[in-house]
Description:
Shape of chain A: globular
Number of strands of chain A: 12
Order of helices and strands of chain A: HHEHEHEHEHEHEEEEHHEHEEH
Oligomer: homodimer
CATH architecture of the largest domain in chain A: 3-Layer(aba) Sandwich
Strand order of the largest sheet of chain A: 1-7-6-5-4-2-3
Amino acid sequence: MTGIVPQRFETVLSSMCTEPHPTAVAAAEQFLASNAGDPATYQAVAALEETAVALLAEITNAPAPSGYITSGGTEANIQAMRAARDRHPRGGSTIVIGSHAHFSFQKAAAVLGMRCEVVPTGADHRADPDAVAAHVDADTAAVVAVGGSTTFGRIDPIRALTEIAHDAGALCHLDAAWGGFYLPFTDAEWDFAATGVDSMTIDPHKAGRSVIPSGGLLFADPTAAAPLRVETPYLASADQYSLTGTRSGAGVAAAAAVMQTLWPDGYATEYTRAMALAERVATACRERGFATPEVELPLVATQLPEGVLSELRSAGWRIAATPGGYARIVVMPHVTEAMVRELLTTLDAVT
Amino acid sequence: MTGIVPQRFETVLSSMCTEPHPTAVAAAEQFLASNAGDPATYQAVAALEETAVALLAEITNAPAPSGYITSGGTEANIQAMRAARDRHPRGGSTIVIGSHAHFSFQKAAAVLGMRCEVVPTGADHRADPDAVAAHVDADTAAVVAVGGSTTFGRIDPIRALTEIAHDAGALCHLDAAWGGFYLPFTDAEWDFAATGVDSMTIDPHKAGRSVIPSGGLLFADPTAAAPLRVETPYLASADQYSLTGTRSGAGVAAAAAVMQTLWPDGYATEYTRAMALAERVATACRERGFATPEVELPLVATQLPEGVLSELRSAGWRIAATPGGYARIVVMPHVTEAMVRELLTTLDAVT
């Protein structure tokens, strides 16, 4: 053994990963040796993947369960962009994203030989539909909407972005990798039925409390996944739609088990708890004079005086920064009231 | 819980995955919540990844440890092709592969906007250097060599293929995803020092006995990975070289732990055991009159009479086919003498 022990979560405010639910851990431990990429050989995990995709389709109000459990949000975003590129009549060369979109879209463009048109967000840190529309043209393969941005936790005007995409013959992809397990409990118009988006990333291993790796990619129209098909001549199974080949059975089993356990009530309870705690953090930051935009999902961005972020880090806190000089506190399930109290104590000591 | 239990391995002869070593399982269970994609937040797993890459570099005789733990062989192969494409002065558009190469190279070409030139293998089921040379030109980004083919378990003439690639200004990539943990104990010229290959896939989650997902991608020259770099603006970490974003800490920890435990003696013992058992299977098949090429690595291909393969499958055996009407029996660590005896009993009953 290596003698190295894992990171504990008691100082982690920077991550969109979290302590998995015990149900997820138990399921993962059973399936560490099962390859979800070879469903004909590993039939048990194939059945669990059907369950997981059906649950994701229910959560996102999809017309039918279509998609698979990915290695994470990046694979899901790359595959969605690939499907959009390959269905475009002229091999659509651009992806239109807001400046708040996850960096995986830049990675997708680099991998796929496409180009990202980056549109600055509005003052509200959301995609600005008029600005997006001005960047969309006949070469656009996909417009990206974000549901729970990694920068400010904001929800884009998803339906408006979908209409812009469709008017130009492009697809609209919603990145709800982090937000997808909170959005059902908000008033936002976000799901397949409400917005008409074509594909969606929603990751059980973030707010869904599954283990790593379990991301989710869903399509509104099952035929949209056709460009992703690859024949698998030597396997017992005939084809694959995934970017990776061998896939974690543990992630699939954990996702199925935890969603069966927590959807919908467990996720609703956690949404309420996390939002209340995020509001308290935001209020405490404002009381200390730090500019702190309104909280929309459980993520607090607060403008700390220069040097304070690095002092918090020196004191052991894991906190990331968001563009514009904001510290970013993600109130994941492992973030407790006690952690917040300790954070505020440290903050008061260093300011 | 789902009530579905995992596949047992007692009838699995089709898979290059296997029962992970107990050391790997124990390490994985500790790190199910750690994200190897964010090393600044998850520092313990970052240290383990350094250990794992250093061990892979030792096993493959690399000039220096350079690479990372991937989600599997497919990600490693895609990333190697991407690095080759992006370093090519004219954006090299072709990948030259043998007809025995893993289907992930077709997937890589589809994703990356490249084309696979598929060269038929020789009668010995290996890449034929002359035939490969005839397909290599100024547009070739990479030539692929295979070290342990998934079809017949064959080792290509790797050094000759590397010379052909280099003469054309292309890179040579070795896919030793499955073979890499057997090759050190053969007489084959295969490693970085002996062959001069530029990059290599070698998967701890196959014959390395780690858990899924843990693949390996290594580069001879650390600067060759430069095209893979993506900035990660909002994370505590500055950049990523991986295709996926969030990555399994469990896979990384398991790979480090099991390689520390089994390299080199444990792997040598398993190589000897698996080869002896594969030889016995091959002999038994020949005694029954089935054409069975020589065994080079622990994988037996045997030409069964029509209908017999599907009868074996009906009897519960998981066996895949290899082109040319061969059944393919992969003698992974979970394949025991008792399993082989039972297989032969079934075979005698259905022929």
